[in-house]
Amino acid sequence: MTSFVHSVDVSEDNVAHKKKTVKWFLSDQGISLELQERVTAYFDYVEQDQQGIDEISFLKANFPTNLKDDMMLHITCDMVLQCSFFSDCDSGFIRSIMLNLDQRFYGQGWMILDKFIPANGMFFVKGGTGE
Q1: CB 3.0 to 4.6 Å from 76: which of 4, 46, 83, 98, for a disulfide?
Q2: For residue 10, what are the CA distances in angstroms to 27, 43, 45, 54, 57?
């Protein structure tokens, strides 16, 4: 139990340190206030909603390929299989989709798609809503 508490403390310190470092970097590089707010929103999301863990980075850094793949299949299975677009697709194709999903973060009020710019993919909404 002591080991777990220690690792949680380190994780919380790590998130605070990352936020402080990113804030300094953004300021040092003269990044616009609007973009700084978007970056801050992402780190707030990771800290508050993800308990300080970026899922994809965590999987890539801590698991061998075979276990990472199994974890990705478990995490994405329900989301992909609930999409009627894939109902007639081969299981190998669906597996490939699940293993190659790209996670993105969009904050409240951010533009995800523009009707004048062609999209090059499909979006699954993990949390929140879009209009």
Answers
A1: 98
A2: 26, 16, 18, 15, 17
Nearest to 80 by CA among 39, 117, 124: 124
pTM: 0.57
The structure tokens listed for 12 are: 């919380």
Q: Give the domain range for residue 29.
A: 1-53
The model's pLDDT over 28-86, given as tens digits with 9 standing for 90+, comes to 999 999 899 888 888 887 777 766 667 777 788 888 988 988 988 888 888 888 889 98
Whether residue 42 sits in one domain with residue 2: yes
One-letter amino acid identity for 25?
A: F
* pLDDT per residue as tens digits for the range 97-117: 888 888 777 888 888 888 898
Distance CA 58, CA 34 (A): 28
